[in-house]
Write a structure and sequence with these properties.
The structure is a homodimer. The first copy, chain A, is about 35% helix and about 25% strand. By secondary structure, the first copy, chain A, is an alpha+beta fold. In chain A, a hairpin with a 2-residue loop joins strand 6 and strand 7. Chain A binds a DNA duplex (25 and 25 nucleotides) through helix 2 and helix 4.
Chain lengths: ~140, ~140
DNA sequence: ATTAGTGCAAACTATTTGCAATAAG
DNA sequence: CTTATTGCAAATAGTTTGCACTAAT
């Protein structure tokens, strides 16, 4: 695996430690993967990309850990595709655009928008905005 | 079924006609249901609520038609729950809040926000914003 | 030592599909 | 009469779970 930012991996390990969550070999492999691959991946994607190098890896373990990482803020769960969860390895708050033609997901930086603490009396912890339409690339083609 | 707004049903029938889509008995039952029940329903919810009155109704037909209605703008598909699609029978553009404790979904009116036509060169057709947190009711309890 | 994680297979759930019978235009 | 829809059952796909074994603290 190339381009592993060791500092980013350490940061994520620290989060596990803080929560007294054991750092297993498999978890380290997954942390290295997400630290070196910015993008949008399903559990199956990650499993396919890693199973050649780690043939005994189980997809159940990928699911378990990605779900754990999401709860710790190490990855972001996107519910933008109709049939599966997508994990976003880029965790800074940002929005998403899904192309209705090619299905590609684009990161959208958030400008001038502040998350309200309350809406209609409900306490807001976080928010996700999904834009849908036709992407630049598909329009040009 | 009570509180069916006949005008609302007619409006939806008109949309089907405009698209040359046959108005079947089952479709009419579903259109009447969504016209008289403002809220957030899964396909299973709708199936359960209607099957007593229409025992031969099939859940596959509910799925087919809700999906059709969504593509026509007659209902709105929400991907706010982790494992299933929710149909919102309220179609005016609005956002949603999901309580992380009780799971209830609240409609949130959109104020002072205009949908951009373009973002990063991509053409935006529509957008969905989901807020997550603890609802008023759960905080008070 | 103790507690938690892994990998496998089986289970589960939401959704889709194939198809013969039927209804709509 | 022609085309599309219905209802049923079976299939599919994503995700979760039970469990024996193993690894981490």
């Amino acid at each position: 695996m190339q381009n592993v930012s060791e500092a980013q991996v350490q940061e994520k390990i620290k989060i596990l430690k803080e929560h007294h969550i054991p750092l297993t070999t498999t978890r380290l492999v997954l942390l290295r993967f997400i630290s070196s691959h910015r993008g949008h991946y399903s559990a199956e994607d990650i499993y396919q990309l890693l199973k050649e190098e780690y043939p005994s890896l189980s997809i159940a373990t990928v699911y378990n850990n990605m779900s754990l990482f999401a709860s710790l803020g190490i990855v972001q769960e996107l519910r933008i595709e109709r049939d599966k969860v997508i994990y976003d390895t880029y965790t800074k708050a940002h929005d998403h655009f899904l192309c209705l033609k090619c299905g590609k997901i684009y990161d959208i930086e958030i400008k001038n928008r502040k998350l309200p603490e309350q809406i209609d009396g409900h306490s807001v912890h976080y928010a996700h905005t999904y834009y849908f339409g036709i992407c630049k690339e598909c329009k040009e083609a």
